[in-house]
Design a protein that fits this description.
This protein is α/β, with parallel strands linked by helices. It has 10 helices and 8 strands.
Amino acid sequence: MKLILVDDHPLVRKGLISVLSLESDLEIVGEAGNVREALDLINRVKPDLALVDLRLGNEYGLEILERSKNTDSCKFIILTSSAEEEDFRRSEEAGALGYVLKEALPEELLYAVRLVSRGRKYYDPGIMDLIMKGSQQDVLIEELTPREKDVLIALGEGLSNKDIAKKLFISEYTVKKHVSQILAKLNLADRTQAALYAHTKGLIRVS
């Protein structure tokens, strides 16, 4: 898997290289410190995945994602020190499949990289905990049926309705019904919040 690192601090990039280069299946193919360098690098080396900081000096890292929307082959993980809900929401809207805080352990970052490389989503437990507390959501998981809990776990794994249907051997229509019931019972707005809930309640384990 080819990766690029986008951060305006050289020491941060070197630290990431020291962690990621130990993995035989990961190859660091470039570094960038600003938006222009990152866009040029993506066009030139065509990486599979980019780790992007939100704050690049006076620039905003999400500009890279927004200007790379037609680059389907490259997936993005935001690696940042920001635990602000607004930054998380904007990152997801821009197309980031992962959001990892810089305080994460190396194994957490590696798990996120491999999960996102498979087209799934990964949200740092730190940001999810803050978001769930902020929403004052306090519904017991026991209110869900066993099948609804299975669907909730699948949502936390970033699966689509089609993938959930295949995994659980049910129809997509049934999946949609379960998702609607889950959102109603847990008083959640959308699939993203359901995924956050699943992670916050410890239903998704890092392997």
